[in-house]
Amino acid sequence: MSFRFLHHQGVADGPRLGTLVTPHGEVSTPTFMPVATRGMVRGPWPDRLRPMGVEMMLANSFHLAARPGVETVQKLGGLHKIMAWDGPVLMDSGGFQAFSLAAISKVTDDGVKIAHPVHGAMVDWTPKVAFDVQAALAPDVAMLLDECPADPRDRISVALAVRRTLLWARMQRDMHEARGGASSGQAQFGIVQGGVFEDLRGECARGLVAMDFDGYAIGGVSVGEGHEAMMDGVRHSTQLLPVDKARYLMGVGTPLDLVESVARGIDMFDCVYPTRSGRFGTVLTDEGPYHLHNAKFAADPRPLVPGCDCDACLTGVPRGILRAGLKSHEFLPPSLLAHHNLHYLIHLMKRIRLAIADGSFEELRAAINFAYRRVEPPQL
Ligand SMILES: [Zn+2]
């Protein structure tokens, strides 16, 4: 895999255009990857993703290894076959799952002991296991197993997480090189931890850059620290990352987070936000989000967003009946809302790329700020 620039301002932390070149095709950046944790996006059908403009997908090694299992994925025809997707795939390593399942996991220098999501017994998820699972499942980009600290403001635990993240990074980089490095066909991204602390972000970024990864992710953000602290974390990290390697902000985000992170030099994103918020009744629009549960939509005959050319809006199903269906736990409304929201974000990334190219990015950034900064993201 390689990353080449089409356009950037020659600075470490400005908006930039690029192309990721992977064994399964090219990806225009900045890009947003839909989350298919278990090989499936929650809502949209797989054959609608490419027409929507999706160029790269995310799957999760920990969950796929738990069920159906690596051997079963291979028997079923492999990762791309089970996803019904022939384009590039990036695979998360399970570090965030250890964080999100912190109540049932324990981290030591050897790795993570974590409750198996299917049968509940404690299993070892070590840097070697994470590496081997990703080598076997064969995504285009493998993420390192890292430690995502539970509280990004707790300096002691963040410093420990940085030390472990670098220790595990060295181990996994050595395994990657022993497997042939770039000639294995798989790219490997390091993950910068460091919470809200500029010096710890710097220590982690410098340590990873010295190991020369194919790209760099910024992890441990969007975990409750707030938008401004998150943007500080992004800025502290991107300033220290090489200009000629892809940068990926994990688990982000909302339209506001996306434009503000692109403004700080991020190339890649993933998040469950569009599909999850849709399933809970939030609809993304250029005027900001609205909540379909609101009683004022009960007899609204309009589609979700008049003029939107996504498959969900083109069905013409009225807001009023989608609202009623949501309240009655019908399957169709969550699926249509998730589809529209994902389409909205994928289309937003395309608009961002065009705006960077024609010099109008700041206007688009201001419009998204106007629409989305005046409202708090809905609690999910
Ligand atoms: Zn739509």
Explained architecture:
By secondary structure, this protein is of the alpha/beta class. It folds into 2 domains: about 1-270, Alpha-Beta Barrel (TIM Barrel), CATH 3.20.20; about 280-370, no CATH class. About 40% of the residues lie in helices and about 15% in strands. The chain contains 15 helices and 16 strands. An 8-stranded parallel β-sheet has the order 4-14-13-12-11-10-6-5. Strand 11 (about 185-190), helix 8 (about 200-210) and strand 12 form a beta-alpha-beta unit. The two termini are about 35 Å apart. The model has no long low-confidence stretch (mean pLDDT about 95). It binds zinc ion.
Summarize the structure.
This protein has helices at residues 49-52, 61-66, 70-75, 79-83, 95-100, 127-137, 155-178, 198-211, 227-238, 255-262, 273-279, 311-314, 319-327, 332-358, 361-372; strands at 2-7, 17-22, 25-29, 31-33, 57-60, 89-92, 105-108, 111-115, 122-125, 141-143, 187-192, 215-218, 246-249, 268-270, 282-283, 290-291. It is α/β, with parallel strands linked by helices. It folds into two domains: 2-271, Queuine tRNA-ribosyltransferase-like (TIM Barrel, Alpha-Beta Barrel), CATH 3.20.20; 278-372, no CATH class.
